[in-house]
Every structure is written in C-alpha cells, then in structure tokens.
Amino acid sequence: MRELRQLRELRAREGGARDRRTEPAATGQSPRSRLDQPRTARPGLITLPSYDPEAFGKLSERIARFLGTGRFIVWMTVVIILWVAWNTLLPDAARFDDYPFIFLTLMLSLQASYAAPLILLAQNRQDNRDRVNMEQDRARSDRNIADTEYLTREVAALRQGLGEVATRDFVRSELQALLKEIDERRETPGVL
Predict the structure, then answer these.
(1) 92 vs 98: CA distance, rounded Å
(2) How far apart are CA 98 and CA 84, in angstroms?
(3) Residue 173's Cα: distance from chain center in Å?
(4) What is the pLDDT of residue 31?
(5) Chain segment 72-94, per-residue pLDDT in tens
(6) Closest CA to 3 of 40, 37, 30, 34
(7) Whole-number Cα distances in Å, 21 to 29, 30, 42, 43
(8) Most buried residue, 84, 131, 146, 156, by most Cβ within 10 Å?
(9) CB-count exposure of residue 64 (10 Å: 0-12, 13-18, 19+)
(10) Number of Cα atoms under 13 Å in the Cβ half of residue 51
(11) What is the CA radius of gyration of the chain?
(12) Range 35-55 burial, b when 16+ CB lie within 10 A, else e
C-alpha cells in the first residue's frame, strides 16, 4: 500500500496524467507500465530528493568566487593559526588534535575535495556562457559583414550611376557651346 502511495506521489510530481492501464488491478497485482512510453524513474522504497540545477549552479559559482578571493585566504589562514595554537598552547585536556594535526589535515582535504568540483562546475557554467556569447558574437559579426557588403554594393552602384549623370561643369560647358553656336548663327545672316 505504501509503495502504491509513493508511486502516485511520484507520478503526481512528474505532472503527467495517469492512464487507467497503469493502475494495478483490484486483485493486488503490481502496476503494468505502458510500453509506448519510456520509464522515467523506478518506483522503489527510496525516492531521491530533486534539486534545481540552476540554483545549485549559482550557489557553486558564489562559492567558487569566494574561494578565489583574498578574504578566503585570510580566513583560512586565521582558522589554521587558531587551530594550531589551540592544539599546541592549551593544556592536554583542552586539545582535540595533537601534533601531527591529522584532524586538521582531514578537514583541509575535505574542504579541497568539495572545493575542486564546485570550482569545476562554476568553470563549466562559465564556459557554457562564453560559448553562447561567442556564438552570438559570431552571428552579429556575420550580420555586420553582410550589411557591410550590401552597403559596399550600394555605394558602388551609386558611383556607377553618378558616373552617368551630367555634372554641373558638363552642363555649363554644353550650355556655353550652345550659346556660342547660337551667337555664331545670329552673326551669319544666311544660315538661319
């Protein structure tokens, strides 16, 4: 009965509507799964907690950013100095980690074993953001190149079109030539 309740909770979390074919028969048989849909999770006694990968990634980036600061180094140095001072200067009854400081070594190893994957996770997220930014920059660059090529063709077409247009000097010289010709015709009475 408890397994059935867990199965229902799991399916309710998945958000899918239940199909009547997946419900167990009234005889107490186990539920029959549909063959046309992939199995998402095994219903079992232990259900693993779910987490938001984005929130976990942001937390890991914050931790990685803190681990890379001088503040962390200062605090870690203070903790180690206090640890060593406590375990060397205080009486034997108050000490909890004698000279080889094995427990301190264990704590530093534990901190490093958690810090390394968090830093790698933060780097992977940064690499993904960099890749997306690079793709966007490449697309923007391609659009800029296409726009530049289009404008270059338009300017070349305008230059070519302007080469065929009469300029002010050309019109003035043609007008002067025409006026001269008209004046010459006026001077010669028999030509008109």
Answers:
(1) 9
(2) 9
(3) 66
(4) 56
(5) 999 999 999 999 999 999 999 99
(6) 30
(7) 13, 12, 17, 17
(8) 84
(9) buried
(10) 8
(11) 42
(12) eeeeeeeebeeeeeeeeeeee
> For the chain, what's the residue count?
192
| Residue 34 · residue 22 · CB < 8 Å | yes
Tokens of 97: 């980690």
- Three-class SS state of 90: coil
pLDDT (tens digit per residue) in 119-178: 898 899 999 999 999 999 999 999 999 999 999 999 999 888 877 777 788 889 989 999
Q: Give the pair of three-digit tokens for residue 65.
A: 């950013």
Residue type, 177: A
pLDDT tens by residue, 6-33: 777 777 776 654 444 444 444 544 455 6
CA-based torsion, 106, 111, 112, 117: positive or negative: positive
Q: Give the Cβ contact number of residue 101 at 10 Å.
A: 16
